[in-house]
Amino acid sequence: MADRLPVLGRPAVVVPAAGFLRPASLRLEHGRTDPDARYTDWLDAGALAREVLDPLGPGGSGDYLPVLWDVVRDRAARARPRPMPPGGVLLVAGPLLQGLGLAFDVVVHLRVAAAARRRRTPAEQAWELPAFDRYDAEVDPTSLADAVVLADSPDHPALLLQGRFS
Fold this sequence. Notes:
Layout: H1 4-7, E1 12-16, H2 24-27, H3 35-40, H4 45-56, E2 63-64, E3 69-70, E4 75-76, E5 82-83, E6 89-93, E7 108-111, H5 114-120, H6 129-139, H7 141-144, E8 147-150, E9 158-161
Parallel strand pairs: 1-6, 7-8
Antiparallel strand pairs: 2-5, 3-4, 8-9
């Protein structure tokens, strides 16, 4: 999507949600493989709103922070705020983002059924699967999204438009 928008005359800015994970001392407080902590404790949604969404929203400064936390070094990334290009579109990419009260204008949810997720998840990440199952059950992200990409088969995705787009 980020590659296609400039062709359409809209610069795209991608901010990975992974740049707004909490420090390891908070994120991993219940261990490195706790699926409930993965679901509730990893993302600093407040920081993502404060440093990215609010400044780019109505009445905001127009300057966003591209990353807050360096997960590899487990320290502040020390990034400088950047201006949103005129007419720019912000894309926030990451899992488990709906249901947190974040103010997105449009939500595109990549839906992968539980069975497909289990087949495609590497063994070392299988501990995360209950977090995604819980997210599907508690948030029902498919019903909240403006568009859903059915991604069970990555070579054959299907787009479903919902709500105001259907």
